[in-house]
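seq as requested:
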Amino acid sequence: MGKLTVLALRSVLALLLAGSLFIQVWMVPLISTDLEEAGADTALRILFLIIVVLGIVTVQVAMVCVWRLLTMVRRGTVFSDGAFRYVDVIFGAVAAASVLMFGLAVLLAPGGIAPGIVLLICGASLLIAGMALIVLVLRKLLAQAVARDVEAKHLRTELDEVI
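struct tokens:
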């Protein structure tokens, strides 16, 4: 991966992280105020805000792990056992985001929200779960690449002994 690509991705990640922090610090309290003024039930309002904040946290966790993986790419150590920890955390964050999205649909279903909106949220939850499965497949590919790398290093060592 080129230096320019890594720099571009890190710039995007930094902007997204700053934006997500802005939403947590500034927008979530505003949403809470709006829901309170609209007369939303306190328990539902709190649950909704918890889901929103935890959803943002899952995105932030995934972004930090991608940043760490980019560091490993730059150092040339991405095909090592250390990368699995970050990929596993990304998988967990995306899976948690899927569950949170479904929880949002469950929270909104009994209210006055149109059934089509609830169905769209359920579809989004399914889409996010599919993304988690893609991360799981990519983890398996990483495992194969690491195994090949270990095998290649072993063969190089044997070849060096022969020579």
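Residues 35 and 45 are 7 Å apart (CA to CA).
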